[in-house]
Each structure stands twice: as structure tokens, then as C-alpha cells.
Specification:
Layout (H helix, E strand, L loop, with lengths): L1 E6 L4 H10 L16 E3 L5 E6 L4 H6 L5 E5 H7 L4 E5 L5 E8 L15 E4 L2 H10 L5 E4 L6 H5 L4 E6 L3 H5 L2 E10 L1 E5 L1 H6 L4 H15 L1
Parallel strand pairs: 1-3, 1-4, 7-8, 7-9
Antiparallel strand pairs: 2-3, 4-11, 5-11, 6-9, 6-10
The protein binds adenosine-5'-triphosphate and 1-O-pyrophosphono-5-O-phosphono-alpha-D-ribofuranose.
The site of 1-O-pyrophosphono-5-O-phosphono-alpha-D-ribofuranose has 11 residues, from strand 9 and helix 6.
Length: 214
């Protein structure tokens, strides 16, 4: 039996649909009255773990799950020791720098030295500003990052943007895109090499399903 780590939140529905298409049914996780965090697929060929998006690579890196679905953004932030095997194409968003519409700065390089930048993605943010050789103070937040510039706590943010609605409704504008992100299928490298529980077949089915959908 293989174990799959599934992300709560924005990627859950598409992840469950994709797994259903390859014969693994974890739709019980979509029932909000169900508080179980671990369930078996009805055919008992796989077990699903419902975890926070940022924790998916942790379970896969430690081998408690052989397979996981997670955003590329999380992989860039955490750099876990996992193998990223299939771009699943959904969960499309981008990691961007944004400032208040009224800000005089229209590019990150224009930001004053030691500006404050709020982010949930502190490593992505610091790596980016280091690449510009621009020293900034990164303020770590867990969510609602857009409030950084609105409250005056920070000059800029580094955050995910998808439709751009959140930025717009909070009076912010995007001034740079760091990278694009989509959901990725990750595996525990050793389990893949030894083909634990027929892992390779599941990965191949997912790959074919994604190719068929393009
Ligand atoms: N607005 C969005 N549109 C599309 N995909 C998104 C969007 N926001 C996030 N994602 C993708 O979904 C993943 C999970 O995001 P989600 O917002 O559900 O969790 P989170 O807020 O990062 O996690 P947690 O709630 O555990 O802190 C992200 O890592 C990203 O890949
Ligand atoms: O461009 P949009 O389509 O508006 O999506 C972007 C928003 O989605 C994510 O937030 P999430 O819903 O995860 O809430 P959070 O602020 O608590 O992270 C992200 O952090 C942005 O705030």
C-alpha cells in the first residue's frame, strides 16, 4: 500500500479529482463533517493523509508518504529532498512583489535600502532581494500578507498572485514576478527507486492522465 500526502486548501479539490481519475478515491476528505486526517482508498490500495500544504513535502521527505501533491512555490521555499516528477498544471499562480498603488516605487530595485518586505515565503523573498544585492528586512507573516503595506508595516510584499483580485481589492499593484507556480507530483526518492507498493505505476498513470488532458 502506498501513502499519499494531500494538501488542505486551494489544491485539494483538483488533487482529489486527479487521483480519482487514476483510480484512487479520497473524496471523503471533501466532506467537511469528516474530521479524519487519514483514510484508506475504498479499494485499500492506498492511504491518504490530509496535511497543511507546507507540510506535504515534510511527510514525503521523511518517507511517511511515498507520494504527495504540492505547489512549486512550496518546493522553492522549503527545498525538500524529494523528487518532483510531474507538473500537474493546476493551481496556477505566480510569486510576485507588490506595493501600494500610491507607492513611488515601480520596480523592486527602486526600493530604498533596508525597506521592509512582508511575506509568508521568507526564503524566496530573501533569495530574490539578495540576487538584486539589495538589503531589505523580511517580515515573516502567516497570511493576509497584503495588510503589510496597507497598515504601513512594510513597503512591499512577496506573495502568491492568481487572479490579482486580492491585490486589486486591497489597493496594491504587482511590480515584479519572481516565478510561476503550479501543483507538482512529488515522490520519496528511495521508495520510487525500489517501487514501493507499485509507486511507479501510479506515477505513470498520473503522467498519462495529465498528458491526455493537455
Ligand atoms: N489564489 C490561488 N490560486 C491558485 N493557487 C493558489 C492560490 N493560492 C495558493 N495557491 C496554491 O495552492 C497552494 C496552497 O495554498 P493555500 O492558500 O491553500 O494554503 P496556504 O495558505 O499556503 O497554507 P496554510 O493555510 O496551511 O498556511 C499554494 O502553495 C499554491 O501553490
Ligand atoms: O490573486 P488572487 O486570485 O486574489 O489570489 C491571491 C491570494 O491567494 C492567496 O491567499 P490565501 O487565500 O491562501 O490566503 P492567505 O492570505 O491567508 O494566505 C495569496 O496569498 C493571495 O492572498
Amino acid at each position: 500500500m502506498i501513502t499519499v500526502a494531500l494538501p488542505k486548501g486551494a489544491l485539494l479539490e483538483d488533487s482529489i479529482q486527479l487521483l480519482q481519475e487514476v483510480g484512487l478515491d479520497f473524496s471523503a476528505f471533501l466532506d467537511s463533517s469528516n474530521r479524519q486526517l487519514q483514510i484508506d482508498d475504498p479499494t485499500h490500495t492506498a492511504k491518504g493523509l490530509l496535511v497543511r500544504a507546507q507540510d506535504v513535502p515534510v511527510y514525503v521527505e521523511y518517507g511517511q508518504a511515498q507520494l504527495g501533491i504540492v505547489g512549486y512555490d512550496v518546493l522553492r521555499e522549503k527545498k525538500p529532498q524529494v523528487a518532483c516528477l510531474v507538473d500537474l498544471k493546476f493551481g496556477k499562480c505566480r510569486m510576485s512583489v507588490a506595493v501600494k498603488e500610491s507607492s513611488p516605487f515601480r520596480s523592486p530595485v527602486e526600493l530604498p535600502l533596508h525597506s521592509r518586505v512582508a511575506s509568508k515565503f521568507v526564503h524566496c523573498a530573501s533569495e530574490y532581494f539578495e540576487s538584486l544585492d539589495l538589503p531589505v528586512e523580511i517580515i515573516p507573516l502567516y497570511g493576509s500578507v497584503e495588510l503589510g503595506p496597507i497598515t504601513g508595516m512594510s513597503e512591499a510584499i512577496v506573495d502568491l498572485v492568481s487572479t490579482g483580485r486580492t491585490l486589486k481589492q486591497n489597493g496594491l499593484i504587482e511590480i515584479e514576478v519572481l516565478f510561476e507556480s503550479t501543483a507538482q507530483l512529488i515522490v520519496h526518492p528511495l521508495s520510487y527507486r525500489v517501487n514501493t507498493g507499485g509507486l511507479k505505476t501510479v506515477v505513470e498513470k498520473v503522467r498519462s492522465q495529465i498528458l491526455a488532458a493537455v
